[in-house]
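Lecture 7, part 2: worked example. A protein chain together with fe (iii) ion.
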Amino acid sequence: MTHPKDVLIDWLRDAHAMESQAVEMLERQVDRIENYPDLLVKAREHIEVSKRQADRVRQCLKMLGTDTSSIKTGIGMLMGNAQSLSGVFASDEIVKASVFNYAFEHFEIANYRAMIAAATTAGQPEIARILQQSLDEEVEMAGWLEQRLPQVTATFLARREAGATVEAKR
Ligand code: MG
Ligand code: FE
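Predicted complex, written out as C-alpha cells:
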C-alpha cells in the first residue's frame, strides 16, 4: 500500500528537478539570444519565476516532513535530452527554442495539475493552494509564448530572407 501523500512526495521531488532544468535551459538561452529583446526580457523574468517555483516545491516537501537535502536537480531527468530538442546548435534555434519552451511550459502545467489533484486527494489543501500559484504562472508563460510564436517565426523568416544567417551568439 502506498499512501497518496508518498506519491505526492515523489512527484514534488520530480518537480524540483523540472524547475532546476527550466532554470538551466533558460540561462543557456539568455546567453545566446541577440535579436529578440522581448524574448530576452521574458526569459530572464521566467528564470526568477522558476527559482521561486523551486522554492515553493521545497517548501511543500518540508510541510510534508521530507528532507530536501538530497533533492533531485539536473538536466534530463524528465524530458530526455532537452538540450538537443531545444536546438542549441541549429541556425533556426530561436524558433526551435520558442517551440520547445512552449511545449515545456505545457509539460509543467500538466505536472502541476496532477500534483494539485494528488495534494487534494492526500488531504493537503494548503499544498494544493501553493502549487496553484506556480500553475497560474506557467499558464501565463505558455499564453505569452503562444501569442509571440507567430511573430518570432515571421521575424526569423524575414531576417533569413534578408541574408541574416546567425540568429544567436556563437
Ligand atoms: Mg516552472
Ligand atoms: Fe515555466
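Residues 44 and 76 are 21 Å apart (CA to CA). The chain has five helices and no strands. Keep this in mind for problem set question 3.
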